[in-house]
Amino acid sequence: MSNIIESHFGTLMSPKKIAAGAASSVRKQGAFYVFSLRVDSDDIREYSFTDRQRAESAREVLISHLEQKIISDAKRTGS
Asked: Which of 28, 38, 67, 74 registers the highest number of CB atoms within 10 A of its CB?
């Protein structure tokens, strides 16, 4: 699923690496485990969980959703 695709500028990109780079690592902040996800340049979302395992699994799921969004956006722009 993590194929390398070509952008409409002609550059090759890996959606999996782009999506993983848009997510911060899980860190402990007070009583919560927090990470943020940059969906767009002006849309940064922060998620918090009380359990580290749940935070890690939610982060992986959201990264895969973002990867699918990147792929669909690339197809929509005609690359």
From this structure: 67
Q: Which two tokens stand for residue 43?
A: 């849309």
Q: In the structure encoding, which two tokens stand for residue 42, read together?
A: 């002006």
Which pair of tokens denotes residue 22?
């848009």
Q: Which residues contact 54 (CB under 8 A, 6 or more apart)?
A: 33
- Contact present, 20 and 62 (Cβ < 8 Å): no
Can you name the residues that pair with 32 across neighbouring β-strands? 29
pTM metric for this prediction: 0.84
